């Protein structure tokens, strides 16, 4: 690993983008859930744009069409066709002003983090062990959170006995291990596949969540969910006709491997 730079090991730009994205999550509190999640579905198209820019690839018309249909299908899931909205509920409106700009920044940062993470795994940091990359990326996140706690004056209170007891509750630990597993799986996903396919995999959660919710909790499946599932399935089928190919860069052999190769040739 002597030929690797600290920039490759410590992706501070990526962690800062993720940090900003999480900070802007609080902006969503000023919107009703429908408007907020409708706007968030734009990340599918934004991911496609950033993928083209960062990897200097051009998506085909069929690939773009599948992404747009996928976005529409995800939006359908957030629209309720059956129930009247209570009078005290915030109206779903696209007159969103400055807060809407912040949401668009959040979407951009979230998508940029995903695509740039794929770039680090496949291009700039292709020779770094994937687990080492995960360690340094999460160390960056820890540093950002410590800075935020310090600025807010909550650093010491976060490490009191009562706070730590709540953190180490078994339910919280299960969530932590689950999210850690998701992060590791995502890194392997981006290393071997691509961020465009990841958006389709995320959209397929609509189908699995709806079916499992019905089977496990008897939660009814409404018209918007049925339409969303049908639209997402069509988008997946259309994408499968012409999927994006973005293989990882071949890693450079270590010095020991090069020496053994020279000996074998001799």
TrEMBL record:
<feature type="transmembrane region" description="Helical">
    <location>
        <begin position="168"/>
        <end position="190"/>
    </location>
</feature>
<feature type="transmembrane region" description="Helical">
    <location>
        <begin position="12"/>
        <end position="31"/>
    </location>
</feature>
<feature type="transmembrane region" description="Helical">
    <location>
        <begin position="221"/>
        <end position="239"/>
    </location>
</feature>
<keyword id="KW-0762">Sugar transport</keyword>
<feature type="transmembrane region" description="Helical">
    <location>
        <begin position="96"/>
        <end position="116"/>
    </location>
</feature>
<dbReference type="InterPro" id="IPR007271">
    <property type="entry name" value="Nuc_sug_transpt"/>
</dbReference>
<protein>
    <submittedName>
        <fullName>CMP-sialic acid transporter 1</fullName>
    </submittedName>
</protein>
<feature type="transmembrane region" description="Helical">
    <location>
        <begin position="37"/>
        <end position="55"/>
    </location>
</feature>
<feature type="transmembrane region" description="Helical">
    <location>
        <begin position="64"/>
        <end position="81"/>
    </location>
</feature>
<feature type="region of interest" description="Disordered">
    <location>
        <begin position="245"/>
        <end position="266"/>
    </location>
</feature>
<dbReference type="GO" id="GO:0000139">
    <property type="term" value="C:Golgi membrane"/>
</dbReference>
<feature type="compositionally biased region" description="Basic and acidic residues">
    <location>
        <begin position="251"/>
        <end position="266"/>
    </location>
</feature>
<keyword id="KW-0472">Membrane</keyword>
<feature type="transmembrane region" description="Helical">
    <location>
        <begin position="128"/>
        <end position="148"/>
    </location>
</feature>
<keyword id="KW-0813">Transport</keyword>
<dbReference type="GO" id="GO:0015165">
    <property type="term" value="F:pyrimidine nucleotide-sugar transmembrane transporter activity"/>
</dbReference>
<dbReference type="Pfam" id="PF04142">
    <property type="entry name" value="Nuc_sug_transp"/>
</dbReference>
<keyword id="KW-1133">Transmembrane helix</keyword>
<keyword id="KW-0812">Transmembrane</keyword>
